[in-house]
Specification:
Elements: E1 14-19, H1 37-50, E2 57-62, E3 73-77, E4 81-84, H2 88-101
Parallel strand pairs: 1-2
Antiparallel strand pairs: 1-3, 3-4
Helix pairs in contact: 1-2
Amino acid sequence: MKDPKGRTVVGFEKHIFICENLREGEHPRGCCSEKGGAEIRLRFKQEIIEQGLVGKVRANKAGCLDFCEQGPTVVVYPEAIWYRISDPEKDIPDIIREHCKEGKIVERCRIQL
């Protein structure tokens, strides 16, 4: 079957999942939704467009990624590198450029346990 978008391979070079989980009430761990998860996902989508990676990199919302205290959290596949977004205006362009385009991990954003 021919792909309506003209794709020749299934999937994306990079797939970014952004936590948008919402917890009811005053949960002690917090939640990424209240920390701007939806806005961060939209910013990732915009950055993908601006850096010319449409069709190569995809950003999708995710449910709980279970690192709520570190949130908002993001994971980039296929490498399974986990990031926290503390400064969206700096972190998001850097993750798209350095990780998705150049293949380098953005260590200052990486979740460390």
